[in-house]
């Protein structure tokens, strides 16, 4: 009888030695005459337990982790292929509390399926959304997305239904679906994990979107730093057969610019030009890729679509709070004990996420600050940890959820240094098109350096400079850079003394 063992091929697991562990397991099985099926699945999202090895048993999948090459022989001796007891045994994977407390609507197959197997995807419920969409009128699909309350998960949180309706109503002989997979924010990895672990979900979402708005072609713009995601997507496309119908998808490798995460700069790069932000109007939904109506979403937004269409808009709206409906895969990183991906409905407090899931700091010291929403997100002090994870609630405290990335810092952090980092990041990554961003960030680094050297008279100048960047920058790169700077200054003024 063939035994199935799962060893993640996710980039984080690979960095922690998953390839060597897989090879050791295959060698050990061969030496013992075991008929083994080794599946390189995606990660379940429990990064602190990687490489997480799972064994399919009659009682379900049993997890062991973190597994090292040195532990493999002992695992065989303990009978792990039958779910045997061992210090690394975590029991049934689905019953691990960290996983069991989540609500995985977008990521239910992460770490479960063979990412390159369409058969496995369909057997786990994949394809139902596309099947239903093909029986619906395009306008009805657009209405379902609108009724669900889905908002863009890339950071701006713009209502997805409005974008879909605009592209649907546009008259053109050619329309496009563009997936923004240029996931460049610090502390974010949900897009990468989904592409590496459940690529058919993204492809299905794009095909449904294409049917809804009248587009027969799509592009996935993946950052060049994600070679494993690119390889998995290409393998999935090669094996897709007629699953996507007449919808064609092409994977494009990004050019390495952070600003290409902005949708119009991404379009410029897709067209073979330098990634510089376009002026608006026209909006991409009217005049986007190659001058045609284009629907642009990030990976998690498009991956949310199959679940909405398969289960209905009402079921999706039941979760969440206020205008923040459904779930979001949050990503815990930085000085955190249990880092990884946590998908929960909107409304949970930041404190619950940091302590109930994250377990507090990895160093064991008190958490002092948390940056939410990437390198241009606000630094939140401990007094704001009870804020609910909700777009409007975060906006009310001068912050944003962004792509759901959360980076934690303990009480040894120098927040003036973090403010400088934000300005320096902008100076390095600015596309250079507008003066407030290009020059303002460079001057900002200089001003912060003078403040850190003891010249507090420069604080007023820093505040004025930040206001100029907010009001005068052409895109969010320059207008958002002051957010982490001013939040650090306002919440942690003692660090600027």
CATH architecture of the largest domain: 3-Layer(aba) Sandwich
Shape field: globular
Q: What is the number of helices?
A: 21
Note poorly predicted spans. Answer: none
What is the CATH class name of the largest domain? Alpha Beta
The CATH topology name of the largest domain reads Rossmann fold
Find the structural class using helix and strand composition.
alpha/beta
- The H-level CATH homologous superfamily of the largest domain, spelled out, is NADH-ubiquinone oxidoreductase 51kDa subunit
Query: Assembly type of the shown chains?
Result: single chain
Distance between the termini: 69 Å
Number of self-contained structural domains: 4
Order of the strands making up the biggest sheet: 2-1-3-4-5
Radius of gyration: 23 Å
Estimate the mean pLDDT confidence.
Answer: 95
Describe the sheet with the most strands.
5 strands, mixed
Description of the molecule:
The protein contains 21 helices and 16 strands. 40% of the residues lie in helices and 16% in strands. It has 4 domains: 3-100, Glutaredoxin (3-Layer(aba) Sandwich); 118-317, NADH-ubiquinone oxidoreductase 51kDa subunit (Rossmann fold, 3-Layer(aba) Sandwich); 320-410, Ubiquitin-like (UB roll) (Roll); 415-496, NADH-ubiquinone oxidoreductase 51kDa subunit, iron-sulphur binding domain (de novo design (two linked rop proteins)). It is α/β, with parallel strands linked by helices and 497 residues long. The termini are far apart. The radius of gyration is 23 Å and the shape is globular. It has a 5-stranded mixed sheet with strand order 2-1-3-4-5, covered by helices on one side. Strands 13-12-16-14-15 form a 5-stranded mixed sheet. The protein has a 4-stranded parallel sheet with strand order 8-7-6-9, with helices on both faces.
């Amino acid at each position: 009888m063939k035994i199935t063992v799962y060893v993640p091929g996710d980039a984080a697991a690979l960095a922690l030695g998953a390839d060597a562990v897989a090879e050791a397991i295959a060698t050990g099985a061969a030496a013992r005459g075991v008929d083994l099926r080794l599946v390189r699945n995606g990660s379940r999202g429990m990064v602190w337990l990687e490489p997480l090895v799972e064994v399919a048993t009659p009682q379900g999948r049993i997890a062991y982790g973190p597994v090292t090459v040195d532990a493999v022989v002992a695992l065989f001796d303990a009978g792990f292929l039958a779910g045997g007891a061992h210090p690394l045994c975590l029991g049934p994977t689905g019953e691990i509390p960290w996983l069991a407390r989540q609500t995985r609507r977008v990521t239910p197959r992460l770490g479960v399926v063979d990412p390159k197997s369409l058969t496995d995807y369909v057997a786990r419920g994949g394809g139902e959304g596309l099947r239903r969409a093909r029986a619906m009128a395009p306008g009805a699909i657009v209405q379902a997305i609108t009724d669900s309350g889905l908002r863009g998960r890339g950071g701006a949180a713009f209502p997805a239904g409005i974008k879909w309706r605009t592209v649907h109503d546009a008259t053109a002989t050619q329309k496009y679906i563009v997936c923004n997979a240029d996931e460049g924010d610090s502390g974010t990895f949900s897009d990468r994990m989904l592409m590496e672990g459940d690529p058919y979900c993204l492809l299905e979402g794009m095909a449904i979107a294409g049917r809804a708005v009248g587009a027969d072609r799509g592009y996935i713009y993946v950052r060049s730093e994600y070679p494993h995601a690119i390889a998995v997507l290409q393998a999935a496309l090669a094996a897709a057969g007629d699953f996507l119908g007449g919808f064609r998808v092409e994977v494009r490798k990004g050019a390495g610019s952070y600003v290409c995460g902005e949708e119009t700069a991404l379009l410029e790069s897709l067209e073979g030009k330098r990634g510089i932000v376009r002026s608006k109007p026209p909006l991409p939904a009217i005049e986007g890729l190659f001058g045609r109506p284009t629907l642009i979403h990030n990976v998690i937004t498009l991956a949310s679509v199959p679940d909405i269409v398969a289960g209905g808009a009402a079921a999706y709206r039941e979760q969440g709070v206020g205008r923040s409906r459904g779930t979001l895969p949050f990503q815990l990183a930085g000085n955190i004990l249990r880092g990884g991906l946590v998908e929960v409905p909107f409304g949970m407090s930041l404190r619950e996420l940091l302590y109930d899931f994250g377990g507090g700091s990895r160093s064991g010291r008190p958490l002092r600050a948390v940056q939410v929403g990437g390198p241009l997100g606000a630094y939140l002090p401990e007094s704001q940890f009870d804020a609910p994870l909700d777009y409007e609630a975060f906006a009310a405290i001068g912050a944003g959820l962004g792509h759901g990335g959360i980076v934690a810092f303990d009480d040894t952090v120098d927040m003036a240094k973090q403010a400088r980092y934000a300005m320096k990041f902008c100076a390095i990554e600015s596309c250079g098109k507008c003066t407030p961003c290009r020059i303002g960030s460079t001057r900002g680094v200089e001003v912060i350096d003078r403040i850190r050297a003891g010249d507090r008279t420069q604080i007023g100048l820093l505040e004025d400079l930040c206001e100029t960047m907010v009001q005068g920058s052409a895109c969010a790169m320059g207008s958002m850079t002051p957010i982490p700077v001013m939040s650090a200054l306002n919440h942690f003024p003692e660090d600027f003394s």
